[in-house]
Amino acid sequence: MVEILFYLLICILIINFLLERWLDYLNSTKWSSELPHELEGIYDDEKYKKSMEYEKIKHHFSTITESLGFLTVLVLFATGAFGWLDNAVRSLAIKNPIHISLIYFAILALLTEIASFPFKWYDTFIIEERFGFNKSTLRLFLLDQVKGLLIGALVGGSILYLIVWIYLVAGNLFWLYTLVVISSFSVFMLLFYSSLIVPLFNRQTPLEDGDLKDAITSFSLKTGFLLDNIFVIDGSKRSSKANAYFTGLGSKKRIVLYDTLISELNTEEIVAVLAHEIGHYRKHHVYSGLLFSLLSTALMLYIFALVSGHNAFSQVLGSDNPGFHLAIISFGILYTPLSLVIGLGMNFLSRVNEYQADRFAREEYGGQYLASALKKLSVSNLSNLTPHPFYVFFHYSHPTLLQRLNKLKEIM
Ligand SMILES: [Zn+2]
């Protein structure tokens, strides 16, 4: 049994890695030095060359990092390093199984952070810098990493503590109680993420008085979205890339516009982006997203509860001690194919939602303004406008620019 599981997990790791490389390769077959005909008028030649160069560098970089990540996991798994670490933690004379699991995950998380640090640094200060995107200083970058680690330890640690405790005491109903914990946490985060977590990294301010605010006020009144819920965030302190998003539930809902978006687009284009975000609110996309993720969490927890008690899940990692943390690692690998399928569903739902929000913006404000905003944003973010359809199917949470423009034209 252990041997079968061992080879099964190795196969899953390898197939998953090869699938990703294949998708990446497919994307690279779409590279072309000439501006494709359907992109005429969106990119000028020079910007297009720059976007191709950006795309290629990002591709090579991710090939290297993902290959290294894959090899590391494969070697750690095959050599029994995960089981060895479990024995090492236990040899510290820690008896409480919850503490053992927490220390185990803390060590893994810290090692992952240390190993990925140089790559994050390279991505920010070499690649993004070279294309003029990076605005972060080394100090801000380091501070971000430290804050991220501390929040992860505090929030992740507490949730984990609760889940391991439930695992130890709840028996058959583990999956249900854990589902309640995770659902409550997700709703709590939707309500308070913007007021508790975001301020640790960014400043959010109400819109300044002026033409933009006037234009937004009249539009938001029309669509029943309160101006109090619209904020500008100082994204420019890290990157020149522009963005906007809708988040939150009920009275805690908010639309956040990046200051970089405001400086790049004209008033009509900004209102069109805002209209798109209000579309997400009016079409209840937060609820459908939440429901989908809770259903998939329920499924995962249920399967985990069914199989995780089996000793093979820790033995396959090289340890004879049954434990939550070891079961999670082997189960995590075993679950990869199903998680891939669920990810496909999630991305599909998200792309459908994007079309709906675009449609709302077109009907309530004006498709031509949204189209011109999307074009400008794609150009300034050097987006890949010609990804392979398979790659889009697997990885894109948004339709491509051309798909969105065509759809806007269709319904215009
Ligand atoms: Zn959207």
Describe, in plain words, how this protein is organized in 3D.
The model has no long low-confidence stretch (mean pLDDT 94). The longest helix has 34 residues, at 45-78. Helices cover 73% and strands 4% of the residues. It has one domain. Helix 9 crosses helix 13 (336-364) and helix 13 (336-364) packs across helix 16 (401-411). The protein has 16 helices and four strands. It is mainly α and 412 residues long. Strand 3 (244-247) and strand 4 (254-258) form a beta hairpin. A four-stranded mixed sheet has the order 1-2-4-3, sandwiched between helices.
Oligomer: single chain
The overall pLDDT, averaged over residues, is: 94
DSSP strand tally: 4
Q: What gross morphology would you assign? A: globular
Strand content: under 5%
- Helical run tally: 16
Helix content: over 70%
Radius of gyration: 23 Å
Entry summary:
By secondary structure, this protein is mainly alpha-helical. It is built from 16 helices and four strands. It has a four-stranded mixed sheet with strand order 1-2-4-3, with helices on both faces.
